[in-house]
Amino acid sequence: MRALRRALDSLLAFFVDDGSLAGLVLGWLTLLWIAIAWLQLSPRWSALLLFAGLAGILAVSAVRRARSR
Amino acid sequence: MSAATLHSLGPMLAAFLASLVEFVEALTVVLAVGAARGWRDALLGSAAALLLLVMLILALGPGLSRIPLRAVQLVVGTLLLLFGLRWLRKAMLRSAGVLALHDEDAAYAAQLQSWGQAQPAPGRHDMLALLATFKITLLEGLEVVFIIVAVAAGGAHLWIAASLGALAALLLVAALGVLLHRPLSRVPENTLKFGVGVLLTSFGSFWVGQGIGVHWPGDDWSLLGLLAGYLLVALLGVGVCRRVHASRAALPAR
After folding, report:
1. Residue in B212, B215, B240 closest to A44 by CB
2. φ, ψ for residue B186 (rounded to 5)?
3. pTM of the model
4. What is the ipTM of this complex?
5. Structural contact between residues B115 and B33, judged by C-beta atoms closer than 8 angstroms
């Protein structure tokens, strides 16, 4: 059981080392998916919004880490 | 350059560079174990892990091609995006001086010291050395397998391009390891990770965008726009992080 948990932790660590970064990315993708599927957001705007949101999340996450001591 | 060429060259380059970083890290441990406890079992452990990884790729490839492309792009694209952003963020923080740079020479010296303390019985297989190189090759190799799977998410034909990129990196690192017999400390690891982070984040964004129904202007050509955009944001981010970190460091400790 412990070995399985260690393996799962290692697998998770492949993708996530800052939970808030991963959470924000997944939240942004979900919002966009809802906006495209149900609110008929223009597909062209959606490309720009996807990039802008992800780039913004990356920059904010890095600066926040630099600010912490 | 046609869009189809870009479509194949991009995954090949991403797989090559990302695999190069992973294999350099594995080589450091394999060299230390081999130098401290003998080459036969160190190489045997690595070879066994490589065999397992090749079998994994051969098993995953045909299986994934049976799943609808859009579903693969959504799931694998999301994972690739998280993976790429993790690499890029860490590389930005290392470039800005917030995190320490990875030092292959120091890692090699520490491994050599810890492995040289207990010697195996002569004539027998050295299970510790075998397991250590098996584990490091498998761990770093699994990341390579994921990268191959992820950057090839755009279609079955990309499997060959991505696999060739990873194979070229493996052969290059193995050849340099045989020739030099020391860790590849001159490989600009953080610069590579920075570039690979930009590449993986761009591919991840592209695939996940297609998965959720985004229309990319110019189709495959928009990958170039994503690459330029993420590179610019990351470079600007490094500058801001450096300034913020310096101003925090100048504050007196409370």
Report:
1. B215
2. -85, -5
3. 0.77
4. 0.87
5. yes
